[in-house]
Amino acid sequence: MRKIKFRAKDKNGLWRHGFILSDDLIGNIGYDEQYGCMCTDVSIIIPETISQFTGIKDKNGKEIYENDVVTHDALPGAKDGLPVVFEDCCWMIKGKLSSDNVYLTKYSGLNISIICNKFD
Q1: pTM of the model
Q2: 23/11 same-domain check
Q3: pLDDT for 8
């Protein structure tokens, strides 16, 4: 089963991972065997920084998230980096021209390197 993951920055500027609980909360809920209970890790986040995992990893094995800025080996104009967006019902690297857009597939990560995230 595919796991839907998110990340967002908290009020201290740290990345938090988990699922979205509300407009400004991200968290993880899991069973802690040591304590024998359900534990929750919840953080207050900056809603504008919420980014979803695309399901693709770059050529270095790093997870690619929405709003990451990436380079693509075969894409002209991508040396300075282009954003990863969800548009037209799919994940893509948004080129400067619509003809330069690259749709993300499980194989496209082989040519992609993450530079940063637009919120860093």
Answers
A1: 0.85
A2: yes
A3: 95
